[in-house]
Amino acid sequence: MEDTVDSAVQVEKVSLWRATREIFRDSRSTWKNVLNECPASWRTIRSGMSWCCLLLIINGAFWLFGGLLFASLEGWHESRYKCGALRIRRFFIEELWEQSAILPEDEWRELARQRLIDFEDQLHEAFSAGLTSYTGKRTWGFWDAVAFSMTTVSTIGYGHIVPVTWLGRMITIGYSTFGIPLFLILLAESGLLLTRILKLTWVYIVRFGATPSGKRIYHSKIINCLLRLIHNTINKIFEQGKSKRLVGPLFETFQGIYNNAINSVNTSKTFSVDDQFDISALVAIGLLFLYILWGSILFFLSEDWSPLEAFYFVYITLTTIGFGDYVPQHPLALLTSVVYIIFGLALTGLCLNTIQGELLRKSDNVRSKLCALFGLQLNCNEIVNLGCSASETFVLSETSFPSEPVPLPSEIPLLPEETEPIQLETTEIEKKDQ
Length: 434
Hints:
It is found in: Membrane. One of its GO terms (molecular function) is potassium ion leak channel activity. By secondary structure, the chain is mainly alpha-helical. It is built from 13 helices and no strands. The N and C termini lie far apart (about 75 Å).
C-alpha cells in the first residue's frame, strides 16, 4: 500500500516537472518567434532604451548639479541660524550651572530670565528665516537637495523641504524653467518606449496562448471559473445601476466601456506594434492598478508604512499631486526608485488620457439622456442681427484712420493666386478616415 502511494506521488512530481519544462520551452520558442516576426519593433525598442538611458544620465547630472547648488545655498543658511540657536542654548545651560554656586538667588534668577529672553529671540529669528527644526539632522543635506531637485522638475513637489531664502527661490524658478522641459522630453520618450514594450508583450501573450502550454493554462478550470465569476458580478452591478433613475445613464456608459474592452481583447484583427497607446479604458485602468500595486509592495517593504499608506503614496506620486504627507524617510529611497517613477509618470499620463478620451466619446450620449430626463435642450444656436450693414464703419477718432479712404473688403481686387482654389494634399491619416 505504501509503495503504491509513493509511486503515485512520484508520478505527480514527474508530471509537474514535465509541465514546467514544457512551459519554459514553449515560452522560449514563442519569444524567438515574436522576435523573428517583429524584428523592426525589437530594434526600435533597443534604440529607445539607449536613448532613454542617455536622457536619464543627462537628467541625473542636472539633478546632481541642483543638489550641489541648493545644498550649498540653503544648507549654509540653515547652518547659520541653527548653529546660532544651538550655541545660545549650550551657553545658556553652562552659564546657569556655573553661576548657580556663586550668585545669590535673586541675581541668578535675573540672569536666567535674561538668557532665556536671548534664546527666545534667537529662536524667533531662526523661525522667521524659515527654519522649523533644531535637531542635529540637517534638512538640506546633499541627497535631500538632489531629491528636491528631482521632485521639482518632475512637478511632483512634495513640499516637505522648500527654499527659504529669496536667492534660493529665484534659483528654483530658473532651475525649473530649464529642468522641466528636459524632464518632459525624458517622460515623452519613456512613454513611447513603454507603449512599444506593452504592445510587444501583448503579442507575446497572444502567441504563447496558441502553444500547448498556453492553452493548458488559459483554459484551466480555475482561471475560467474566476473570469466567469468576475464577469457575472460586473454585469450584475451594471444591470442594477441602470435601473436607477438618475445614475442609470452613467452605468450604461460604464457598461459600454466594459463591453468595448471585452471586444478588444477577443478581437482577431491584425495588431500594430507602434507608438499609439490605443488600448481600451478598462484595460488602462487595470494596467495602472497593477503598476501602482507593484510600487506599493516595494515601498511597503522599504518603509515603515501599511499597505494602504504605501498604495496612497504611490498614487499621489504618479499623478503628480504630491501632498507631501507621506515621504520616504531617506531621500535615497526615492532616488533609487527614479526609474519606476519615470515610467510610472509616463504610464499614468497615457492611461489617464485614454480614460479621458473614452469618457468624452461617451459623454454626448449621457448628456443627451440626462437633458431629456430633466427637460433641457441642447445645441440651441441663434442668429442675432446687430443692426448694421456690412458697408457701415465705426469711426473712433479722426486720427485712428489714414486720410485716404480705405476700400471695403468687397472692393479689394483678388490676386491672381487667390482666384484659383487651393488644393490640399490629403494626409495618410485622413485617407484612413475616409
